[in-house]
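Your task:
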Amino acid sequence: QVLLVESGGDLVQAGGSLRLSCTASGSIIRINNMGWYRQPPGKQRELVAKEGIGGTYYADAVKGRFTIHRDGATDTVYLQMNSLKPDDTGVYYCNANIRHSAYSDDNYWGKGTLVTVSS
């Protein structure tokens, strides 16, 4: 069993910054990748950024403003969000693809943390 716990969501004014954190715990042999999705109000969930075996990815909408960093020692991924815009508002979900037993990988989700950017 693997658990992802997020923190850091808050209400912030446009132009401000926030840092989200997500820590994985449980039966972890290897983390293949960790990243962040978001779901704006009334819209579908979308990939924001991820880091892992395949490299680092950022959605076009956040390039140059958001930075993802994974700490392998603590199985924690951070998302530093700068120059926030009202369009960044949404529930941010941590996602990880983890090898939890020999030759068995699974995808896990956190419960989400709310980011609200006021104009």
In short: The longest strand covers residues 90-101. Residues 28 and 100 are 5 Å apart (CA to CA). The chain has a mean pLDDT of 96.
